[in-house]
Each structure stands twice: as C-alpha cells, then as structure tokens.
Amino acid sequence: MTDTLKSTIKGLHHVTSMARDANLNNAFFTRALGLRRVKKTVNFDAPDVYHLYYADEAGTPGSVMTYFPFPHIGPGRQGAGEVGMTVFAVPEGTLPFWEKHLADHGAGGLSRDEVFGEKRLRFLGPDADSFALVEVKGDARAPWIKGGIGDDEAIRGFHSVSLRLRDEGATAELLEFMGYEEADRAGNVRRFVVPHGNGANVIDIETVPGARFADLGAGSVHHVAFAVENREKQLEVRKALMDTGYQVTPVIDRDYFWAIYFRTPGGVLFEVATNEPGFDRDEDTAHLGEALKLPKQHEPLRELLERHLQPIVD
C-alpha cells in the first residue's frame, strides 16, 4: 500500500461491545463513569436486543461507547485478534479521584501504571471488560457533567484502543494507509496516532505471537469504528480500501451515521462511520436517550418489543 488516506480519518468514532445485562451496563456507564446515555435503540439485526449508546452531551464522534446486551450470552474469552482495551481520556491529576470513585462503584481490577509517559488507571467493567483512564493534558473536549462527576474530573471522550494481535505487521501497514503515523514503541506495543485528529486519535498494537484467538462474548469488543466527516469522505475510504484488496461492505444506514465494515488482517472488525447526521436526528438534544427509538423497519414491532425488552431503570 503506497497511497494513504491522510487527513480523511479523524480518529475513533465509536466502540461497540457486548454485555449480558442492560441494567448493569446502563448503571455502570451512567453512574460509575458518568457518561450520558444518548440513545436507547435496538440491534438492527436482532431487534429483540437493545443497542445502548453512552457518550458526552451530544454523542460527539470520538466519545461514543455502545453496547449490545444479550441476556443469555456467555462470557468472552480474551486472546489475539480483538480490541484488548478501551481507554478514556481524563484531566491531569484526576486518577486518585477516579480510583476511589470506581472502587466505590464496585469496579474490579483497579491498578495504576504508566505507558508512553502517560499515567493510567486500569479497571474492569461489569462483564470483565478491559478499560483504562489516561491523564491527558489540555484536552479541550467538553465533558458531560450531569452524570454526577464534575467538570474537573469528567471523561473527555476516548483516548485510544489497544489491538491485541499475533502479528502486527499487516495491521500496522493498514493503519498507516488509513492515515495513522507510528509515534512510539515500548516492548511489544507500538503506538500509532492520527495527527490533528479528533482527540480520540491513538491506536496501540500489542503483539502476542503465541496467544490463542479470542472468543466473542460478554465483555468483548464487537468492532471499533473510525470517524470521517461525511458520506463523500466515506466513499473515498471505501474505494481506497477496495482498490487495495479489502472486502468492504456496501454503505449501511445506521440512522445516526452511515457505516461500512471490513475485517483487518489481524482479525479485528473495523467500521468507518460518518459524523453525520448525529444523535439528535430523532430526539431533541435535551432529551437524548430517554425514549426507545426504533429503526423504521422495526417500528411495526414496537408493541411487541416494548413488552419483551427489559425495562431500564435510570
């Protein structure tokens, strides 16, 4: 791959994972992490399962964590070929606050370390999801501050994701084609950054040559999505990827963004999503995430789905 998509991809758009209980998931992200639920809808392909979105006030790309809570799903098995950790950005000096706050909310796996000169607090979600908070100086992104956490401490959005791969070579080449640049190395981890990105513009690759492959389940990341400004830019990305030999889906309307998907050489499912039209297309910004919103093809099932879906207690 010689040509690149430099400046087209802005960083992360969203990260989508799987859970086993909608209420546990909702409570953790809105109370423990203080994020806003910006959309309560359903899985396009399995409408009897919620699709829950958590983010900043408006659901800004680069801040959006989403979940499919499958009530009877088994636990995921960590391994190669997956997103190994999802990392959020918090202000400098706030890790002591977060360590106590997360402990008070029952988060497990709390431990501190430093990576690439950044102070980090690792922790586990309700399904043993692997997360971290990283202190970032001067992150100007506006946080959601009505979730019980003040402006001085609140999450600003994503910092990065870490890909866990048996062999990083082809995926590293793909990231560089997508406009990322290698910024640093430490041990078996390589860091890639989109210059002048959206703040959620870091990808780490952790190489684990002998690791078994991961199995999807509760706590697993299903896919990671990258942000482009609009559909025109998305089509440019799609053509470039297909010209390079990747099998890319047609553009799919996801109501709040348009999406394309492709599988990376290391096994991780990538999505490229548009920043448009946004989460306020069917709800006023002041009331995001309150009502159950259904894709138009599932609207005839509303009465059935409202009886079937587990009520979410806020």
UniProtKB/TrEMBL annotation:
Tell me yes or no: is Oxidoreductase among this UniProt entry's keywords. Answer: yes
Q: Which GO molecular function, any one, fits this protein according to its record? A: dioxygenase activity
**PROSITE patterns given in the database record:** VOC (PS51819)
**Carries keyword Oxidoreductase?**
yes
Q: Which segments constitute the VOC domain? A: 11-136, 157-275
Q: Name one Pfam family in it.
A: Glyoxalase
**InterPro entries recorded for this chain?**
Extradiol_RC_dioxygenase, Glyas_Bleomycin-R_OHBP_Dase, Glyas_Fos-R_dOase_dom, VOC_core
Keywords from the named record: Dioxygenase, Oxidoreductase
PANTHER family of this UniProt entry?
Answer: RING-CLEAVING DIOXYGENASE MHQE-RELATED (PTHR36110:SF2)
Q: Could you identify this protein by its name?
A: Ring-cleaving dioxygenase
Its taxonomic path starts at: Bacteria, Pseudomonadati, Pseudomonadota, Alphaproteobacteria, Hyphomicrobiales
